[in-house]
Amino acid sequence: MATLLRLFSDDALKTATRFLNGGRVENLAFFRGGIAGDAVAPNGRSFAVTLVLDRASKFLSALCPCSPSLRVGRLCAHVAALAVTAAPQDAAGEGPQERFERSLFFLLARAAFDSGEKDVPALAGAAPPSRAAKEQLLRRLTETPEELAFKRSGVKTNQQAWEDSPWYCWAKSWFTAHGAAWDWFSQIKRENGRLVLRHSDPNGIDLQLSPAPAAVDRLLRDRDGAFFTTRQQSVMGSGLVPSFRVWLGTDEALRLTPVVISSFVGHEEIHDRDSLQNLKYGAFYYLPEAGVFAALEQPTAAFAEPEAPPQGTFSFDGVYAASTFGVPFSRETIVPRDKVVRFITRHREELRRMPPSLLSPTLRAAIGTGWTSGVTVRLTGEEAGRMQLALFYDVGGDNVPFETLLKARRAGLPFLVHRDQLVDVGDDALAWMDELGEDAVSGDGEDARVDVSPLEYLRLRSHMPARVTLQGESRALRLLDELTSEPGPPEPASLGVPLYDFQETGYRWLWFLYQNRFGGLLCDDMGLGKTHQAMALLRAVELTAGVDSHFLVVCPTSLLPHWEEKLKRYLPAMPVHVHHGAARRLPSTRGVILTSFGTLRNDAALFAARSFDVFVLDEIQTLKNRGTVTYQALSTVSARFALGLTGTPVENTVADVKSLVDFVLPGYLPGEAAFKRRFVIPIEERTDPTALSRLQRLLGPFLLRRTKGQVLPDLPAKIVDKRTCSLSPEQQTLYREVAQGQAALLRDRLDRDAAIPYLHVFAVLSRLKQICNHPALVDPEAHGDWTRPSGKWNLFTELLDECLASGLKVVVFSQYVRMLDLFEGYLGSRG
């Protein structure tokens, strides 16, 4: 309608203005894009005129008795007078339908119709018959083809149902009688949970209206709530925040009851959402005490779990299911008893951010730093190398016996409620209980005792919180806590093996493990002297155990010369037997037996018949796969103490670390299923820092790793670590052929006193060096074939793997271009 006057020429509009100076348009009717009326000329002659536009404001038709054919640009002055009357300039060119749809009466009626309200107030007055007839004509002219098709089928569109409703008739009659009437209804009150608007004036008009909540919502949104603010009612577009009251029911299920938090009156106030339902108007709530209409803010998802899988089912009873969309604010959600601890653990930080008044005391305690702040341990006795302990967990200031928690855990209970504390029975702090034997606990309640070995105590200790109180005579426990033993080890100066300060620390740690018949992994960076620390332990054991000491060192074949040279240099009085090569036998005398992983695998039965004081496995990462024949063969070796040396186990997968620890310390870590559930899945799939920290505490007493950066002040300016290796059989054959073939020529020239071609000698020496590097360097057909057997190449790949796995940068030198080609090909094959 705003474009209504553009349909007319300037001449038609001027003529219409002159027409209206003495004439008029009466019985004006409108419907949708159509208007109709009687144009009465100054001489009293009347013209029934009609103008119809479609919903896109495009001209459809025009009727006037003065002309049989009317179209855009050729519309008569009578139709123009109708348009000028229907769209006056003071209404910004809006037509009656547009003004009607912006009126208060239309807004209230449409909202009441949409909400299904049946109680229609009285009409302002019936329309004159002529006007009613004109509206019927406009209804026919503005019907769309789709609406005609629906009518023939006996049904109506939603728009038709609205326009045929009593509410539409009520709104139009009041608009026709009183216009938009936004200044009506000066009185606002609430009766029986409904908002009541009332208008009365001296003219006898008394109108009382109780609009539907949807209509009130429209009033609150329209013009920034001006309808209410001009009537001394506060309207706020925010101020209410949805949340939950979280509490533990008598059935020990966690209940999340919706609440609304208001914070615009100077302090926070919490309202139960159900109690506000009869004060709800769309997105707004009315708070009578404050006299405020306030909108509910759109919150972020509550207790959402982005990693949750898609929901397979929908719950209508409010039972909690992990969801990427979180928990709905519209209804109470119930977290079943068996999911309470997981829910609290998963959403602890979100619960902590909630107002404390929304959480029950039990929940406030549960989301704190933990359900226990400390443990009291009392050593009550020792027998046959085992200790009897009384354990009490601090729960809310009370000492709760461990046996109470043990019973609950074994019964499969998810938690216990102790006064106002929620005790997570499934907490990993109690996981040590799962490894206890059936006869490990005696007594009940405060008299309960747990019988543990030193190894089991260290496992128990790794699960305890930071604050542990040791009571009574507990020297044995303190030594285990400090990872020391009595008597202490021989002084490092008496060993004959030079050690830096950090290596002395490692030596004393190894002594602690040996004295307690534990096992361990020494994982210092490459070049920090793992071999020296192991040799220091061998010498200390020899000094204290007497002359009848038996040691076994197993390593990759390429490291056998390295170990042999180190042992003979630093422990010259200790016999060293290299068990390798063709004619192999085990000596019966004391000392060190050196062998390779492959040789021991082949001679497993031979070694299984012997027992060793110390079993050292250098480059133990070779055994990371427990399913290999080598792993199984080495597992048959009997030793008081097993020590693994490697620079890289903490860089491997969690499962690999378990394989290595299980070898040197069998039975310490949980079984495969429990280990995967508690460590592998959380760490490798979810990168859970808590699970990683738990594993580090569990392994801490038995795994020692120092990096170069940590011990830098103790290191010399440069570390030289020379490694030796043996030639492969192919290399030995090539070497002999070249050396013997060239030697015959040289001896002949010497016998004849002829001149020696020294350049030729240098060429022979260079060829022999190439053979020692790799046979592919002297075989034209094997250019780039790094798979040919070579002792030096095997040592190179082992050192490279250890360096790279330790995060070191590596530079490799060679004077031979073809050797560099081998490196390039090999590194390229590994990506």
In words, what does this structure look like?
- The chain is an alpha/beta fold and 831 residues long.
- It has 29 helices and 29 strands.
- The strands form six sheets. Strands 8, 9, 10, 11, 12, 13 and 14 form a seven-stranded mixed β-sheet that branches. Strands 25-26-24-27-28-23-29 form a seven-stranded parallel β-sheet.
- A hairpin with a 5-residue loop joins strand 3 (46-53) and strand 4 (59-63).
- The longest helix has 23 residues, at 729-751.
- The protein is elongated.
- The model has no long low-confidence stretch (mean pLDDT 85).
Amino- and carboxy-terminal Cα gap: 73 Å
Our estimate of the beta-strand percent is 15-25%
Helix- and strand-based class? alpha/beta
Q: Gyration radius, to the nearest Å?
A: 47 Å
Number of strands: 29
Helix content: 25-40%
The geometry reads as: elongated
Average pLDDT value? 85
Low-pLDDT segments, ≥5 res: none
Major sheet: size, sense and barrel closure? 7 strands, mixed
Oligomer state equals: single chain
Number of helices: 29
Layout of secondary structure:
Layout: H1 10-22, E1 24-31, E2 34-40, E3 46-53, E4 59-63, H2 77-86, H3 96-101, H4 104-114, H5 129-142, H6 145-152, H7 158-163, H8 166-178, E5 187-191, E6 194-200, E7 206-209, H9 213-221, H10 226-229, E8 234-248, E9 254-262, E10 269-272, E11 280-281, E12 284-287, E13 292-296, E14 333-335, H11 340-346, H12 348-352, H13 361-366, E15 375-383, E16 386-395, E17 398-401, H14 402-410, E18 415-418, E19 421-424, E20 441-442, E21 449-452, H15 454-463, E22 468-471, H16 475-481, H17 501-515, E23 520-522, H18 530-545, E24 550-555, H19 560-570, E25 576-579, E26 591-596, H20 597-602, H21 604-608, E27 611-618, H22 629-634, E28 638-645, H23 654-664, H24 672-685, H25 689-699, E29 703-704, H26 729-751, H27 758-773, H28 791-805, H29 817-829
Parallel strand pairs: 8-13, 15-22, 23-28, 23-29, 24-26, 24-27, 25-26, 27-28
Antiparallel strand pairs: 1-2, 2-3, 3-4, 5-6, 6-7, 8-9, 9-10, 9-14, 11-12, 12-13, 15-16, 16-17, 16-21, 18-19, 20-21
Helix pairs in contact: 1-2, 4-8, 4-9, 15-25, 17-18, 24-25, 26-27
